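REQUEST FORM: STRUCTURE PREDICTION
Request ID: SP-0412
Submitted by: Lab K.M.
Chain count: 1
Length (residues): 410
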Amino acid sequence: MQNQTTTLLERYYKAFIDQPSDWFFFLGIAEYVKYIIEVKELDDITEVLVRQKAADEAVPAKYAAAVEKETERAAKKILPQIEAQGITSPSVNKVIERYKSVKDDYLQGSVPKVLMLYDALEEVIYELYRAGYDDIVKDHITLRDKPVFRQTIVNGREEKRPRHLIKEYTFSKNIEEYKRELQVLENKTHTAMWQAWERLSLVYLAIIKADEEVKKIRKEKARVDKQGGSSLGVYMSFMGLGMMVDEMQKIRERHERPYTGDTKFNLVYFIKADYIHYATRFHNYLVRELEKDNVQTSDRDKHKQVITDTILKFYPNDGIAEYRAVTKTFKSGTKAGALLCYLHIAKNTPLSISDIQENCNERINVETHKFKTEKDIFDTIAYIRKQLKVNKSEYFPIRKKEKSFIWVEK
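STATUS: Completed
RESULT:
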């Protein structure tokens, strides 16, 4: 079955990769993706990527929730005091309106809403401090030690008075970690295989599944409207899909009516050179994973009964691992937490030392703790086993197989 799958996969790939026509190229990608979705052993491989994307996004999402909670908690302390003191400064009112607008009306764009909310509250605090309302903001900032002297009017006369500048805003203890994890995620969008699969799936969506997806969005909009909620987010989803479908339609029309159709338009979503890159990377990955399948199947059969009896569970959002009756938290930013998170994402996939270094080290906070050698990985696995009270001779699903590490759990 595997050889037949690989042969058909190669046919689908070769049918589009060198196509001179943009339309035939993208149509071929759509059919290629459709075949992958319909074949279970291929769909299983892409499901690993979907889980990996979810796990990569879960880390910044956890911090985003914390930052949002901290920001709103600080705002609930600050805003009522402004009203109670009858502050009517135009500059203060302006930033308050911006904060309320972000909180109530901001639709998710290139900048996450929680960051916009945080920045808006920073502006509120800055304007209040600048206007002299230190008592309102003193618990949410720290000041520089050395003051600066600024001209100010006192009783109709100009005087130079000392003023300490704001050193940092302290209303969110998670903001820096959130920004760091956002950057980690941003870096992954340029290198992670799930990003290539996601882009190829957009072609399938825009050509083969467009009508079905439009119906789903319309149904969701009707549901939200009926419940009295805001359907702006659903509307934006509809507009985003509509723009992709419209661009693909123009590519098709340019192919079918080169002399009468709209041939002078700028591509935004479906740039052929980019998709040649996505398709080639993803296809090579898929073929490589298929070749691993025989080895993994044999290994799974060998340990099937043992694994059924001793399943290791890991919850990336909380960093909690469970084994038998033992529960242990492996914090984000630690070697054990980073290793468990990555191996959990790529279950049943043999991973080299370089794979682990590339995907784990950026999530380890302390530079000297990063994985440098194979011994570092062995030591971390031994530490995990010890924390979960795994007996020395007992089988554990995380282990080394040949030259690779693997979490076998099927």
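NOTES: The longest helix spans residues 40-84.
Reviewed by: T.R.
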